[in-house]
């Protein structure tokens, strides 16, 4: 289903479809979900064919080491400048036949599911992962009157068209009927770079926006029925208890990876607290900085991709642990909480904080 942005667009589309008078089913073809059908919400989750584990490992290296750096070069460049320990790291994703085989195998996983899409339907491609799938099926889908929408959940950097991989992704976008990006700046950049591949691209900016139903929902029972680690429970209890007590509270809800720029946040917090001229008790009365960070309590081996990305996660995890030790009860961290309807409770009377200089949203 993807991360926050991708998941949010899915949930929004699913909610609108469920509330509409359209009796057709919304079909989500997923590479990491089992078959699921909900007649009330009018949703079918249809799994794709599995991919071999060895090729999946190659695929993740291509996606998360090579393509993420392709779409977010500034984030990778600044991380290497700010953290000298990353410079000796070698990033060597599979190339040549291994890379081609991994991308081809992933694309083939969706052949059977795509063949079942009914004529006059609409299909939504989510991000660069499906570039090869689009190249394989766009023409036949168009012949069947199937409208294709490409949702881009990454940045659109200047210079995407300078590499062969970037050009192939742009060509895939050009084969669709509508392209959605997060900002007007991304739209302008894409219009310039995609022009060699299509004459009249339909590129729009879409807003995910807040889920007001969840924000206004039942907050009292947001955490019931979920297994939380002792560290998660400690952080959540403090967030709830300080909601109307501590005046300045900041929450960072991000993964510990390069594109999120967490090392910038940790350094900024350290400088800020050190500059207040307050003793520890006064700081605790006035400030809280919470990190709900995926990979914080997990080992680096769980991080998708290899090399630079994993090393960054391990380095920043240690920086964050050092910060929590330096400012006990003021800076607190735990692994992220996979409870979407609980986030409204956590962010009430708090500021969101992020350090990314180049992100999709």
Strand ordering within the main sheet? 4-5-6-7
Mean pLDDT: 83
Distance between the termini: 17 Å
Strand fraction band? Answer: 5-15%
Structural class: alpha/beta
Query: What's the helix count?
Result: 14
Rg over C-alpha atoms, rounded to the nearest angstrom:
22 Å
So what's the overall shape? globular
Written as H for each helix and E for each strand, in order along the chain, the element string is: HEEEHHHHEHEHEHEHHEHHEHEHE
Oligomer: single chain
Number of strands: 11
Describe the largest sheet: 4 strands, parallel
Instruction: Assign a percent range to the helix content.
Output: 40-55%
Q: Could you name the ranges where pLDDT drops below 50 across 5 or more consecutive residues?
A: none
Task: Describe the 3D structure.
With 361 residues, the protein is an alpha/beta fold. It is 43% helix and 13% strand. The chain is built from 14 helices and eleven strands. The chain has helices at residues 4-19, 53-71, 73-82, 96-108, 111-115, 131-143, 164-174, 184-194, 212-215, 230-241, 262-274, 280-286, 308-326, 343-346; strands at residues 26-30, 36-38, 43-47, 122-126, 147-151, 178-181, 203-205, 248-252, 287-292, 331-334, 351-352. Strands 4-5-6-7 form a four-stranded parallel beta sheet, with helices on one face. Strands 10-9-8-11 form a four-stranded parallel beta sheet. Strands 1-3-2 form a three-stranded mixed beta sheet, covered by helices on one side. The radius of gyration is 22 Å and the shape is globular. The two termini are 17 Å apart. The model has no long low-confidence stretch (mean pLDDT 83).
């Amino acid at each position: 289903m993807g991360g926050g942005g991708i998941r949010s667009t899915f949930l929004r589309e699913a909610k609108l479809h469920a509330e509409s008078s359209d009796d057709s089913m919304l079909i989500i073809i997923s590479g990491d979900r089992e078959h699921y059908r909900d007649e009330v919400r009018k949703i079918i989750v249809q799994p794709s064919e599995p991919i071999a584990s060895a090729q999946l490992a190659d695929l993740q290296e291509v996606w998360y080491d090579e393509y993420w750096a392709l779409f977010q070069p500034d984030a990778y460049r600044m991380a290497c400048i700010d953290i000298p320990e990353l410079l000796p790291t070698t990033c060597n994703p599979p190339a040549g036949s291994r890379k081609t085989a991994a991308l081809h195998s992933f694309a083939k996983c969706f052949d059977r599911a795509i063949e079942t899409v009914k004529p006059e339907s609409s299909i939504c491609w989510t991000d660069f992962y499906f570039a090869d799938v689009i190249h394989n099926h766009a023409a036949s889908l168009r012949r069947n009157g199937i409208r294709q929408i490409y949702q881009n959940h990454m940045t659109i950097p200047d210079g995407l068209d300078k590499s062969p991989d970037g050009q192939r992704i742009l060509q895939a976008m050009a084969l669709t009927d509508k392209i959605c990006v997060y900002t007007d700046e991304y739209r302008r950049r894409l219009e310039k770079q995609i022009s060699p591949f299509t004459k009249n691209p339909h590129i729009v900016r879409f807003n995910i926006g807040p889920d007001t139903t969840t924000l206004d929902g039942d907050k009292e029972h947001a955490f019931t029925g979920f297994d939380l680690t002792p560290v998660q429970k400690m952080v959540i209890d403090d967030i709830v208890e300080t909601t109307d007590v501590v005046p300045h509270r900041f929450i960072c809800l991000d993964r510990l990876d390069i594109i999120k720029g967490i090392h910038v946040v940790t350094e900024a917090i350290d400088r800020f607290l050190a500059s207040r001229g307050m003793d520890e008790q006064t700081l605790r009365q006035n400030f809280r900085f919470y990190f709900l960070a995926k990979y914080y309590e997990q080992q680096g081996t769980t991080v998708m991709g290899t090399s630079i990305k994993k090393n960054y996660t391990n380095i920043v995890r240690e920086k964050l642990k050092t910060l929590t030790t330096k400012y006990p009860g003021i800076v607190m961290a735990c692994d992220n909480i996979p409870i979407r309807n609980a986030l409204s409770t956590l962010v009430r009377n708090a500021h969101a904080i992020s350090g990314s200089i180049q992100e999709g949203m």
